[in-house]
Amino acid sequence: MKHFQLKSMASITHLLIYILAFLLIWEWLRPVPAVTNTGQIEIFVWFTLASAALIYLRFPFYITMPALFAGSLYGLHLIFMEGPFFSGEGAGTLLRTFAAEFTVNTGMIFDGNFAALTDFFRTFLLFTLLALVCYLLYYWVLYTRRVFFFLICTVAYITILDTFTVVDASQAVIRIVIIGFFILALLHMLNVQDEERAIGRRPGSFISPAWMYTLVTMAGAAVVAGILLPKPEPQWEDPVPFMREFAGIEGSGGARASRIGYGVNDERLGGGFEKEEGTAFLAAADGEKYWRGESKDIYTGHGWTSDPTYVESEQIFGSGIDYRMFEEGAELEEGETSIEMDEAADFELIFYPGQPVNVQNTAADSGGNTISENEIQYYTDAQGGRIQAESGNAQSVRLDSYDLTYEEPVFPMEELRNSSEEDPEDIQEYYLQLPEELPERVTLLAEEIAEDHESRYETAAAVENYFSENDFEYETENVAVPDDGEDYVDQFLFETQEGYCDNFSTSMVVMLRALDIPARWVKGFTAGEEIEELEDGRNLYEIANANAHSWVEVYFPEVGWVPFEPTRGFTNYADFEEPESSDPGIDLGEDTSGEDPNIPEPEGGVDDLLEEGGEQGGTDEDGDEGSAVFTLKNLLISIPLVIGVMILYQKQNRLQNKFFFYRYRLSGKSASFSAAYQRLLWMLANEGIPRAEGETLREYSRRVDLALSSQAMTKLTSSYEKVYYGGRTPADEWEKRKKDWEEIVRLLQA
Length: 750
Known about the structure:
Blueprint: H1 2-9, H2 12-29, H3 32-35, H4 41-56, H5 61-80, H6 88-110, H7 119-144, H8 148-164, H9 170-198, H10 209-228, H11 240-247, E1 279-285, E2 291-296, E3 298-299, E4 304-305, E5 310-312, H12 313-317, E6 331-341, E7 355-364, E8 370-371, E9 377-381, E10 387-390, E11 396-412, H13 413-417, H14 425-431, H15 440-450, H16 456-469, E12 473-474, H17 488-496, E13 498-499, H18 501-514, E14 519-525, E15 529-533, E16 539-544, E17 548-556, E18 560-564, E19 575-577, H19 605-609, H20 632-650, H21 652-667, H22 673-686, H23 697-708, H24 712-726, H25 730-749
Parallel strand pairs: 11-19, 12-13
Antiparallel strand pairs: 1-6, 1-16, 2-14, 3-4, 5-9, 6-11, 7-8, 7-11, 9-10, 10-11, 14-17, 15-16, 17-18
């Protein structure tokens, strides 16, 4: 019995079960970068794989323990140290560091001061925990054959992260269920085999094919059913918002790691976001535009706030107060747009392009009652430009639809490059603010970027281009969240260098302010998707929740507020106009592209332009995975693929001929003579010998034989006529003429 048990321990079945169990551990590691500041997760995955292999192969204790300890030291070196590991100096430095860290942190543990443990020692504890989990799984799987508890814990762990963090576990749950299904079924199979041995039977130690066919069929059927079957809407009210509020996960500081759709509270930026499907509003416009919601002027080190001052919008739209988005230097063109809000979009503000002039609408209050136009009063934040409607009783009103007249600027490049006037005092007061705790290296970086540029415009363009020129990555999922004492911009610029629009736009505003250039952070929506051309010549755009976005506006004294777009993969739709050249030999003409000619095209190519989706709380439209950058590696991979496709296309007829040659050769007597003959006619046509219109089969066969210097086609045609007209058995004729059929195919391949 012991012999059979040892043999079973080394079986392929046990190895497969243990590999599946390792995949469960991997599911525990996947979300770690999204919910913690832990990076380089691949190091932990490789260490776990090595630990699992050592434990499964049952090396002696005196080999396994030193090997695991050495592996953890190597991982610590990769994460925290520099220089080569396999050198006397590198290994010695690491051992001395480890000894010092171990001594200090052990004392903290005995004192109960767990919060003060260093990252170095925490990482070592994580390595130790992973090795322990590998051993426990080995014991559960191969000895007790009970893994159900660990499976349930894995499902609970993933679903909790999906509910309360930015982790999207929809695919992970499917993987875990499938893996757990196979593990439980295979363990049950081993128990059945043991019972058979107990009654004198001797089943093999390998996986039973019948079991595997059944498992694969059942798992496949479950997956297909889950994908294809209709999915009803939730029947109970979602308890998660109450639970999050009760637990204090959401508060006045905003969510730390989950931002969905157009957010209201921006005090705490950072963390990935989940994609929110659905339409925000429809807009009829004469072209692609950014839809502005509001701007904010106070940077706290973790996000944005503002102190809005609302005045009647007529004063803003008219000349009642000295507030204009654009100055005399900008040429203004009037435009009109019609906006229809989606029923599910709960926005109590107006979105607009350019500078609003007038608003007319039909609105409904929160109770769904229709309100007439003369009962509505509009108020605008004089600093942030946020417009909201109120009813006669000073209650905020959600507008179902509205028509908006606006002024759209054309920015003169000559004015921007030569801007030299001093900024007004109120502009300096509001839009140069920075927190006292801003790390000095942020200012030093801004000065380094600007040192070779004299004008304000050149400096702003240099800061805007800095991110694309230095390989900053567009990322929406694994985005770090700054700690309480860590600056949001500093973390992005010097540590992570990956994020979405909030990271890029906030960093640009802060660096410009560090250079005494007034700038503000703006939020709204990108252009959306054009879905229809209207009879009046305008286009209808669908702006989705996923189009939520943030960008930058920079103040130029003679021109006003000019938009800039630092986020990689996004297009600036503002209209910039170059002056006509005085040199008759050079005609610059008018820039009608709608883009700043000094700003290079997005480097991500077509794929990045398609990512013009949400960020402020949505995601890019189709990029669940970040922006694709065309690199040399991609080029080296693409060239052989393109050449291969060209060769396959050129050789397709020959390859098809070979395929059908071996297919009919191997089919033997079971092949249909009629089908083989028709296929041969098709192959001859592909090789440039088609049957002419009105040509009989006999005439055609003689012409083919003449072209191929053969008699085989005539013989095949004679047999085909006997089958088709004379009622001969196709199988008998195929057996007789099979060699003639193969002869013609060989001649075509020659």
